[in-house]
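Appendix C reproduces, verbatim, an entry submitted by the partner laboratory led by Prof. M.T., so that reviewers can inspect both the input and the predicted structure.
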Amino acid sequence: MNEERKSALYLAITEAVMEEIKANQIEVINDTSSRVPVSISARHVHLEKEHADILFGKDYTFQKYRDISQPGQYACVEQVTIVGPKSEIARVRIVAPLRKQTQVEVSRTDSFKLGLKPPVRHSGDVSGSAPISIIGPKGRIDLDEGCIIADRHIHMSPHDAKAFGVENHQQVQVQVDGEKAGIMGNVTIRVSERYALDMHIDTDDANAFAITGKEYLNIMK
């Protein structure tokens, strides 16, 4: 193939790709200001005060293990065992501070081991979710609902949202580069003055895309 034919072919391919992008109305944001850090959320438990008292003793004070990405939140030294109809998983960390309602977040792989069918939900939306039991050093609680698989989401401040051109609750796609490159869909934008810029995925997503938690990912709108 001569150079003229090669050039014509490359041009035709480029034009076809651009038309496909326009047809699907997808905009890839590649500049540095629109790349977001990503954190991997392993299985964990958020507790309400009543349940914390049952599992660890009245007015128990949780010890910080390490800070996590969102201001004021931290993983605790304390761990519990979560129990489903099929099996149990030990050494599941508590994430503090206490919340209004107890919530257990697991991956789909975890749910298979436990024998549960938790829905994919926003954090805090546990109405009608899967039942689960939690065992602590001082007691046990059996929840009729409270176990979910957290949706993919990006925390950001109003300033960040304005810079990225996105809104609270908007659904976006995120492009992942690397050895197992791909696109994550159904990523929810969450905007609050309390939030620091960070994308949260679970261990199943991290393994599927070979993400280590040190990457910066591109938002697609």
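Residues 108 and 149 are 7 Å apart (CA to CA). Additional entries are available on request from the coordinating office.
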